[in-house]
Amino acid sequence: GFIFQVASFQGVVVRSLGTSSPHDHPEHGRLVYKGNLAKTVLGVKFFSYSTSIFNLFMMPYIMLKSGIGVESLLVQAAFYGLIGIFTFVTPVTLHILTKGYVIRLYYKDEVDTYTAITYNAILAEKVTVFHQKDVKIPDITKMFTTFYAKTKSMLVNPTLFPNPHDYNHLMGYDKSSFFKFEDLEEVKEADER
């Protein structure tokens, strides 16, 4: 009954939207990358935030029922420390680790700019626009950074670019090839001499 109605309603809504994808944003350019862990990152952060909020609301109740409030100062400090770690440290750490995870990346050919969509601290989508020349590759491989867009660290999975040329252009690999055709000709001429 009810589940079937919801499913059929969703089908009508999807059909009424036409052929456009929910990720089509012509103002950002064409979609060149879509992160496959976007839902996972959102889910983990949402779970972490909700458990933190639950902990904050439950703390006074737990203290009242367990009698921790009347125990020694050491027991109180240990209790607050443990709750504090789960309530504040975990969500902050999660946000720091995942704030650069690119959900979607758009490219505007005519102006050579990218628009990266990431999640901000309140789980809303955040838009970062940068030029290809703003892209800096870290000197050493970093766990949660593929490149820097100006000063912001960004994380993408190179294998998820449908067109490898889009990844190469983003990283500047198409500009700084080590062996250009002219260089090879010069080497050949030097060898002949």
TrEMBL record:
GO terms for cellular component: mitochondrial membrane. GO terms for biological process: mitochondrial proton-transporting ATP synthase complex assembly. The chain crosses the membrane at residues 46-64, 76-98. InterPro entries: TMEM70 (IPR009724), TMEM70/TMEM186/TMEM223 (IPR045325). The keyword Membrane applies. Keywords: Membrane, Transmembrane, Transmembrane helix. It comes from the Eukaryota. The keyword Glycoprotein does not apply. Belongs to the TMEM70 family. This is TMM70 protein. It comes from Tichodroma muraria. The lineage of its organism: Eukaryota, Metazoa, Chordata, Craniata, Vertebrata.
